[in-house]
Amino acid sequence: MRRDRQFRADEFPLAPSVEPVVPRLDPVAGRPSRGNGGQRHLGSLSDFHDRIVRTSEPRYKTAKIVMLGTRGLYMKANYQDLGRYQDVDLDISGDAEASLPILIEQVKRGIDEGRKAAFDARGKKLAAAKLATVEQAKLDATIGWDASPITTARLCAELYSQIKDEDWSLVGTSIGLARPHRLWNFTKPYQWNGLAGGGGVGYTLPASLGAALANKRHGRLTVAIGGDGDFMFVPSTLWTAAHHQIPMLYIVHNNRAYHQEYMYLQAMAARLGRGITNADIGTTIKDPLVDYATVAKGFGVYGEGPVSDPNALAPALKRAIAMVKSGQPALLDVVMDQR
Ligand SMILES: Cc1ncc(C[n+]2csc(CCOP(=O)(O)OP(=O)(O)O)c2C)c(N)n1
Ligand SMILES: [Mg+2]
């Protein structure tokens, strides 16, 4: 989608301001500090701002970008336009699953023999590279296999080994959790439904339940992994799951923190020379720890955990999956590595 005009900074709260923001002095060096968004020089001073500033650089400078799907509609209806996604040359609004096979056929028809041979050769190279990547990912997943907190790799490997022969659908992952996409074999469009468009915490639990509802009539085994912080936003989703009997296995990636935020605060505090010892204030979820299984039970949902012994994981997964296969939602609280 093309933006038809540039936005002024005052229309967009996250855009770099053209005016200097209050300069702060570095407590150690006594000079203006470096901010997250880089420095702009204002005479002898540079300003500082504690805000995240994104810039947009087209990733593919020479390619023609065609977008097929409903994301364009969403972006046009939303402030997300300001998220500065890649501009596209041709934006086709439609159901990608229905339209893509026809589009692929048309593209294939337009390919001559020489190009076809080149594509086949490239395909073979990509297949070999993919195989090597999966083998490496499997090897990586064995690191810290018996550790507690349980590694995210072990959780993903154990979960997949129990669902791989089912008609599974992964409808949510916690922040930065790319392991399912490295370790699992995704072959159907509904096996992954993407991430939150706006990156809002509190998305994963309710959005996963929506996807689980869509999967229900097809009898698919819906699984999701969501952050503990994410869970804190709309836990009442579980009541909806129980009330409407929507089968879904929801695994809480319990790292006892809004960890993304925790890391960011540590980074900022370190950069400003303030020390990182207070970065846990408001960013960790402890004192008291939350018992997510009890919360689930309170909403009428099967809940188990916290599971922190890696050897207890497989049997707990088995019980929770059995519950989901009987048509009910189930929550499993797993104490895991931060990432
Ligand atoms: C609605 C909303 N509020 C705050 C944020 C800022 N934020 C980004 S990640 C994050 C922490 C999320 O915690 P959790 O879901 O437990 O994931 P973790 O980083 O611990 O893996 C926060 C608060 C956001 N993205 N969206
Ligand atoms: Mg967390």
UniProtKB/TrEMBL annotation:
Gene3D superfamilies: 3.40.50.970. GO terms for biological process: isoleucine biosynthetic process; L-valine biosynthetic process. Residues 22-44 are annotated as: Disordered. Residues 181-334 form the Thiamine pyrophosphate enzyme TPP-binding domain. GO terms for cellular component: acetolactate synthase complex. It holds the Pfam family TPP_enzyme_C. It comes from the Bacteria. One of its GO terms (molecular function) is thiamine pyrophosphate binding. PANTHER family: ACETOLACTATE SYNTHASE CATALYTIC SUBUNIT, MITOCHONDRIAL, THIAMINE PYROPHOSPHATE ENZYMES. Belongs to the TPP enzyme family. This is Thiamine pyrophosphate enzyme TPP-binding domain-containing protein. It comes from Bradyrhizobium uaiense.
